[in-house]
Design brief:
The structure is a single chain. The protein is α/β, with parallel strands linked by helices. The chain folds into two domains: 94 residues, Elongation Factor Tu (Ef-tu), domain 3 (Beta Barrel); 119 residues, Nucleotide-binding domain of ferredoxin-NADP reductase (FNR) module (Rossmann fold, 3-Layer(aba) Sandwich), CATH 3.40.50. It is built from five helices and 15 strands. Strand 1 and strand 2 form a beta hairpin. It is globular. The structure holds FE2/S2 (inorganic) cluster. FE2/S2 (inorganic) cluster binds next to loops.
């Protein structure tokens, strides 16, 4: 059951132009959150804007009792959030949604596969707690991160410090490989291991990664980002077409906020 929390801002910085990292003190939220889940964040007590903003969990620290979010300032809700200072309180609903399959979960052996995180821009945010989970079982994996330019690549050092091998691509050639993130698959250091792909970013990139995984016979999970209203499964603003099978039934539509945001890519109708 999601809970409403009054979280206190511990620190809040602009890490690159219009990309912010905010750390919040919220002990119960930190204890209950899992990699790949998200929060609904409401800054204004006046309900303007009316709807809270969905933001992925970027780091979860149950011992410190904090959670960290990485977000892009794109509209009025996130512009208001960007003004919050240390010590202020903000309203959080969560944790929400179904997160990534972790090492040791069904179909996900901890050692005989290599986890590959494929990030497009700010889509890197929900992949860090996943990399932390893999790193904790001694199999940190590979990050392939792409964006239009160097300014869009954030948080990659947080993966490196957890032992993840990092490869970068930019469309303007300002950092790493000159081209798309999908080009980086040509030089993957797999060492004979079977990959499992985890990806978050623009829809075009997710579809390309899904097609590549299907072609190679690799497992692939995607985190879908969609305009959300309630975040609780009530308003149907986030429905996508799927062919997900659960308990013997095939679901032709799924709610990204409660059935996702993470899906096996073969369950999504692209
Ligand atoms: Fe309301 Fe998903 S956001 S049902």
């Amino acid at each position: 059951q999601p809970l409403i929390h009054q979280a206190t801002v511990l620190n809040h910085i602009e890490v690159k132009k219009d990309i912010f990292r905010i750390q919040l003190v919220a002990p119960e939220l930190a204890r209950r959150s899992r990699p790949g889940q998200f929060l609904q964040v409401r800054v204004s007590a006046t309900y303007d804007p009316l709807l809270p903003r969905p933001i992925s969990l970027h780091h979860i620290d149950p011992h410190e009792g904090t959670v960290t979010l990485l977000y892009h300032r794109v509209g009025r809700g996130t512009a208001l959030l960007a003004q919050c200072k240390a010590g202020e309180k903000i309203e959080i609903w969560g944790p929400l949604g179904r997160g990534w399959s972790l090492p040791g979960d069904k179909n996900v052996p901890a050692q005989s596969v290599v986890p590959i995180y494929v990030a497009g821009g700010i889509g890197i945010a929900p992949l860090l707690p996943l990399a932390e989970a893999w790193s904790s079982v001694g199999n940190p994996g590979i990050l392939l991160c792409g964006g239009r330019c160097e300014e869009q690549l954030v948080a990659v050092d947080d993966f490196r410090t957890r032992g993840v091998f990092v490869d970068l691509a930019t469309e303007d050639g300002s950092c790493g490989h000159y081209g798309r993130v999908t080009d980086l698959f040509d030089t993957l250091p797999l060492q004979g291991r079977q990959p499992i792909l985890y990806t978050c970013g623009p829809m075009g990139m997710l579809k390309a990664i899904h097609e590549l995984a299907t072609d190679k016979g690799w497992l692939c999970q995607v985190s879908l980002e969609e305009r959300m209203g309630c975040g609780l499964g009530a308003c149907l603003s986030c429905v996508c077409k799927t062919k997900a099978e659960q308990e013997g039934k095939v679901w032709t539509h799924s709610k990204i906020c409660t059935d996702g945001p993470v899906f096996w890519s073969k369950e999504v109708i692209w």
